[in-house]
Amino acid sequence: MKAVAVYGYSPCTGKTSIAKELAGFFHSQGRNTMLVDTDLVKGNLTEKLGLNSSPNIGVWAADIFKRLDFLPYWDINYTWNEIEPYVQTFNSLPVLASNTLEDLAGSPSLLGCVNVILQSLLKTPYDVLVFDNSGGVCDHTLNILLRMDKVLLVAEPFSFSLPNAEAFVRLLVDEGFSMDQFGLVLNRYPTHAEQDPLEISRTLGISLYGVLPNCPDLSGKRGQARIFTMDRANRFTDEIGHLANKIWNEN
Ligand SMILES: Nc1ncnc2c1ncn2[C@@H]1O[C@H](COP(=O)(O)OP(=O)(O)O)[C@@H](O)[C@H]1O
Ligand SMILES: [Mg+2]
Questions:
Q1: How far does the centroid of ligand 1 lie from the alpha carbon of residue 12, in Å?
Q2: Domains identified in the chain, total number
Q3: What percent of the chain has pLDDT over 70?
Q4: H-helix or E-strand containing 209?
Q5: Residue 132 CA: which ligand 1 atom is closest?
Q6: In what order do the strands lie in the sheet with 93-96?
Q7: What's the gap in Å between 18 CA and the centre of ligand 1?
Q8: Does residue 222 register a pLDDT over 70?
Q9: Ligand 1: distance of its center to the CA of 84 in Å?
């Protein structure tokens, strides 16, 4: 199994778009894939995919909290049959949708709950799990990233600042991360006025995994409720495919 997190330190860099397109690509290649929204505060996968708001990861979390009253998190495991009621599908791709449980992110048992979700999902027979995360460095997000085979760090050239990115990487290293676990993705081609992706990759010590072109269909109404890698080839979906193959083929 490959567990991949799509992550970044600033909002609106394209994490959710990349997560859904990546999961869609793996799925259309015949890999048994699940897309998971672990942006517990502002997750918007349901909106982007036109799914129902429920069931979702928060409904599952509510059940986990009940079990956590009696058992430590490491003794709680959900089998695939027990997880299935919380999962929706988008064109046959299983999706664990955005949280709707109020205050989930502020709960004192959140870390235990996230551990139960992770340990249960990592034991399922999926080939690939793709996690869509919020930016920032809250404990539960770092906890998710630590368990991943690969973390894609998404940056958007227009708003990119190298000193900020370096400070962010130093923070992750202080938290115990190795940059080998990370892959850099620049979402949208930089203009001449912006920094060279390879230069950024060298400075940060993170391998460059992809530079994605502009894909206007992703934004606005026309882009809603679609996963382009499932039914259309363009430069954007081609790049997502390269990214997916790179992740799939590495040890
Ligand atoms: N490569 C791209 N080309 C054009 N628009 C994009 C691209 N990637 C993302 N977007 C748009 O940018 C906005 C933010 O993307 P989103 O995936 O929600 O970011 P995040 O999850 O990081 O907040 C959305 O409107 C999305 O459609
Ligand atoms: Mg998002």
A1: 6
A2: 1
A3: 98
A4: strand 207-212
A5: 21
A6: 88-90, 93-96, 33-37, 128-132, 2-7, 150-155, 182-187, 207-212
A7: 8
A8: no
A9: 29
Ligand 1 pocket residue status of 218, Cβ below 6 Å = yes
Q: Is the CB of 42 under 6 A from ligand 1?
A: no
The CATH number linked to 14 is 3.40.50.300
Q: For residue 133, what pLDDT is reported?
A: 96
Q: Atom 4 in ligand 1: which residue has the minimum CA distance?
A: 215
Nearest to 138, CA basis, from 111, 167, 109: 111
Give this prediction's pTM: 0.97
Q: What are 151's strand-pairing partners?
A: 5, 182
Range of the domain at 222: 2-249
Give the Cα separation of 101 and 37 in Å (integer): 13
pLDDT of residue 223: 59
CB atoms within 10 A of CB 213: 12
